Amino acid sequence: MSQVFRTLRWLLLPLWIAQLFSGEKAFHANPVLGSRSLNRRGLHVWRGRLAAALAASRRRRLERLVAPEDCGAFARDGFVVKPDLLPPEQFERLLREVETFRGRAAEVREGDAVTRRVPLTPSNLKRLPACRALLRTPAFRGLTRYVSSFDVDPIVSIQTIFTKAAPGREDPQTAWHADSFHPTMKAWLFLQDVAEEDGPFCYAPGSHLRTARREALDKRRSLEASDPAARRKGGAFRFTSRELERLKTAAPLRLAVKANTLVVADTYGVHARGASAGPTARLEIWASTRRNPFLPWAGSAFGALLGARLVPLTWGLVSLRRRLGLPTPDVRIVPEVGPLEPPAPWTGRRRPVRKETLGRRQRA
Ligand SMILES: O=C(O)CCC(=O)C(=O)O
Ligand SMILES: [Fe+2]
Fold it and tell me: How many domains does the chain have?
């Protein structure tokens, strides 16, 4: 890097400082977040602690949205499981509607797994009355809002996870990890039974708590990630089974569940996708909320306005980044597909699949 460029880079200092109070978690792009000496002094842990305190205060204001026993289970475990979420007839309608839906989807390859998502945008929802009803269900609305600590609609998609579906190394989601340095929500309404061997969601109960052991481990990871020679500089830290044991949480659970079970989790807690015995297709309604974790207030007009509308926009951004030669996730857009249709073969890394090719493949 030339000296001039290095000096000019410091003009970005205000942005780097502002990012301290955002959800930014990568250690490489921002020399303040990635500063080894600041992280040695506890910067990373301090950010996480402040974000957790703010999340707890926002959540207190949303307690009215959930049953007291669900609040208790969440405080203890970091996740809530609601079997039989919908009345049987309503669930049957939802399942049939999702299985027969065809729409535009994004497919992401991570290792040998392919995740297909059809976002519940306002235009898709016009054709999905049972999904609309689900989003209005008090348990779904209340739990996703409470756990996320934001009184806003989550971004919701019909999601299918195809395990062992592409050539590649092991699915990275099967490693124990935390999604970020701050509390954040993901939810799954499983539409089919998920057996132990089908790659169920796994969680270490109580691992969402900022114990001294957890903070020490977070600090160690932040020092590793801010090492100039480090290869992995992302903020979704991974943990070995031994490290997980040392956290002294309750024994990790593989959440093998029946269809119609909702799981809502704080994915700061240590979790993973269980390894599956063979190729599987896990069909679910998937929700997530990611807002600036340093916002003191729980509501937002913008949240209500944007929601899933943002998803196609992010697809556009990914293809723009790819055209500019910047690193992107391994994503392709499929113009029309049903959730349970097996994914077309994955051809090479980072090569966008042409619409015409896909159309032909799907007709075949
Ligand atoms: O699909 C799963 O079971 C968990 C995947 C995961 O770690 C995530 O979505 O953050
Ligand atoms: Fe995760």
Answer: 1
Structural domain includes residue 194: yes
Query: Considering the domain boundaries, does residue 270 fall inside one?
Result: yes
> In ligand 1, which atom is closest to the CA atom of 161?
1
Is 162 a domain residue? yes
Instruction: Quick: pLDDT tens for 135-186.
Output: 999 999 999 999 999 999 999 999 999 999 998 899 999 999 999 999 999 9
Query: Given the CA of residue 286, which atom of ligand 1 is nearest to it?
Result: 9
Q: Among the bound ligands, name the one nearest to the CA of residue 276.
A: 1
Q: What is the residue type of 57?
A: S
Domain that holds residue 326: 36-363
- What angle do helix axes 129-136 and 88-100 make, rounded to 10 degrees? 130
The model's pTM: 0.91
Q: How does DSSP assign 221-269, residue by residue? A: HHHHHTSTT-S---SS-B--HHHHHHTT-SPPEE--B-TTEEEEEETTS
CATH code of the domain in which 308 resides: 2.60.120.620
Residue 179: nearest ligand to its CA? 2
Question: Whose C-alpha lies nearest to ligand 1, atom 4?
Answer: 273
